[in-house]
């Protein structure tokens, strides 16, 4: 019960911070995303590289920030889209830097530098597409709605999984995450789709109902995969949580693992059906 209370209070504080930043203005959004992205990459490197090659880690984080900022400027400030390709230059610097590392026995660890960019930086940078219109006008409502779907799905998975899944039914991926259950999956799916309908009828999602339901369905499925992918990383490196900054949750990567897959998939869906 104590852990549940701590988890709830920490989660509520995090949600309030995200909501306020998204609804205030584009600068608060940009600052929030850069801070969260940096924190998640630091946690990922702490888990996978454990203090080694810190200069290369800094280069990777700088490359991520450059990618986000260029995408931010392109969508919100009429920055020439062709110049977004400049984000690849810091990645080349990381590659060149790897040649000057004297100890080549752990060269495989450098793959984590690129993995963090693909796993964390690219999804966060894609969120710029959800807050800026093609004409550069800012609105955090859509991205907030996508976060709400992820949060509701997580809550449904946790509540149904703990209350039903731990006692009855089959496990979802026992070799990766022993606590994940099919009961939690279906509970999260039901609440996610319900959230999509509510967001439609409250005009937070200005799309036809069918698209809102399909969007919620896809985000729930990929959100579960996002959670499992991070669980697999933690299991491989034998760590319980990615960090300790959020009591009851672990680190920022633990809190946003679902969103890293779910929100980009939601954005891609809206782009593919040509309604974003």
Strand order, main sheet: write it out.
1-2
Overall strand count: 2
The 3D shape can be described as: globular
How big a fraction of the residues is strand? under 5%
Summed up:
With about 280 residues, the protein is mainly α.
What do you see in this structure?
With 276 residues, the chain is mainly α. The chain folds into two domains: 33-137, no CATH class; 138-276, no CATH class. 70% of the residues lie in helices and 3% in strands. The chain has helices spanning 2-24, 26-48, 54-76, 88-98, 111-126, 128-131, 141-165, 182-201, 209-236, 252-272, and strands spanning 171-173, 177-181. Helix 1 (2-24) crosses helix 2. The mean pLDDT is 91.
Lay out the secondary structure.
Layout: H1 2-24, H2 26-48, H3 54-76, H4 88-98, H5 111-126, H6 128-131, H7 141-165, E1 171-173, E2 177-181, H8 182-201, H9 209-236, H10 252-272
Antiparallel strand pairs: 1-2
Key features?
276 residues, mainly alpha, two-stranded antiparallel ribbon, 10 helices, globular
